[in-house]
Amino acid sequence: MLTVFGSTALDTIRTPKKILRNVLGGAATFAAISASNFVKTGLIAVVGSDFPKQYHQTMAKFLDLQGLAIKDGKTFRYDGSYDNTLSMRSTLKTELNVLADFKPKVPENYKKSQFVYLANNDPEQNISLIKEFDSVKFSMCDTIDFWISTKRNSVIKMIKAVDAVVINDEEAKILTKEFNLIKCAKKMMEWGAKYVIIKKGEHGSLMFYDDVIFPTAGFSLEDVVDPTGAGDSFAGAMIGYLASKNSTRLSEIKKAVVYGNVLGSFAVEKYGIDGLVSLKKTDIKKRIKTYEKMIRF
Ligand code: AMP
Known about the structure:
Blueprint: E1 2-5, E2 9-14, E3 19-25, H1 27-35, E4 41-48, H2 53-62, E5 64-71, E6 77-82, E7 89-95, E8 115-118, H3 123-130, E9 138-141, H4 145-150, H5 152-161, E10 164-168, H6 169-176, H7 181-190, E11 195-199, E12 205-209, E13 212-216, H8 230-245, H9 250-267, H10 274-277, H11 281-295
Parallel strand pairs: 1-4, 1-8, 2-6, 4-5, 8-9, 9-10, 10-11
Antiparallel strand pairs: 2-3, 6-7, 11-12, 12-13
Helix pairs in contact: 1-8, 3-5, 6-7, 8-9, 9-11
Bound molecules: adenosine monophosphate (AMP).
Adenosine monophosphate binds near residues 7, 25, 147, 228 and 231.
């Protein structure tokens, strides 16, 4: 079983063609739903009393929700706006609300999870949560500029506490204060991460392990409408795939990165969570085949 911890949100997403208000989002939501294509996935997160029943039902279709707490107050809210090219996003608002002082509890039957993903979330909460698992074989975390600018030292401690970091290129640069992605990865490895995966949006990713560098192309798409959650879907697919194989062999980690790129590509084709919830296993298989053809030479 895989456990995913992190934000579940009501997102406002401003794209050039459409504005979505208070839609289901959150790093853990995207990651866990993406992972559920590969393995049984439990979510640990918190929402407020304003969280729509309909969103709860959507998540329940894909996830084990024993770890989802409902607290008095408002759900975490994120408001972000894309530029006309959809490649730059600025954060207009981050309202932590019930997430601010959340003390997550790991359900007893999740404690045996061997695979744990700490999605984008307060790094201090992430550090204390990972200690509650009995036998973690592989753990991974992500972060975002909000936490790097408010709690950088804790982000570094979080990196020490996990096996792998998956992070986007801009955030890797801000966090490590380096400009070159190899230097960024080396620094995160010095801090204690065994594996570093740097996501480069539509351009794919770079995976680093020891002295191995594994670059992957993004799945080329002509029509992108909303990049929100692509990185989370990437990470969820990666760890979901590894959990399904119960393996952390380097060859499987490389395949996991390919699944990450492919699931990320589904997320950006529709608005909000729609790209993931409408996905069938056969769609994934087909796209993996197309991807293999694209990159073979
Ligand atoms: P991504 O597009 O992969 O960077 O992820 C976007 C998701 O991250 C959105 O659904 C947001 O709700 C969530 N998010 C944005 N800012 C934060 C934050 N500071 N902490 C946790 N989750 C966040």
